[in-house]
Design brief:
Elements: H1 13-32, H2 38-63
Helix pairs in contact: 1-2
């Protein structure tokens, strides 16, 4: 169950919030460092996006480990088959419409 059930309906909202957070952090960091060139702001924003993506990838792989494979039992082999079954006398598939 999600912490915020109303936000599950809008799939693009997480990406939009991530972009907005990266832009706001880049602008704040650029203003603190007194940068005056827009390519530096763009570089900061892209670096922050890459950093956020790596954190998200690490967080997802750390939280969900794949389930272990289910153990299957060995098949039982009956030597000689069923003793009271005769294939020649079996007519249960004579009216069958499709070949299986």
């Amino acid at each position: 169950m999600s912490r915020f059930p109303g936000l599950d309906r809008v799939r693009w909202l997480g990406g939009a919030l991530t972009l907005a957070a990266a832009a706001a952090l880049a602008a704040a960091l650029g203003l603190v460092l007194r940068l005056r060139s827009w390519p530096v702001y763009l570089g900061l924003a892209l670096t922050l996006l890459l950093f956020m993506g790596s954190i998200e990838r690490y967080w997802r792989t750390r939280r969900r480990a794949p389930p272990p494979p289910r153990a299957r039992g060995r098949l039982k082999v009956i030597r000689g088959g069923k003793s009271d079954y005769d294939l020649e006398k079996d007519d249960s598939t004579d009216t069958q419409r499709w070949l299986m």
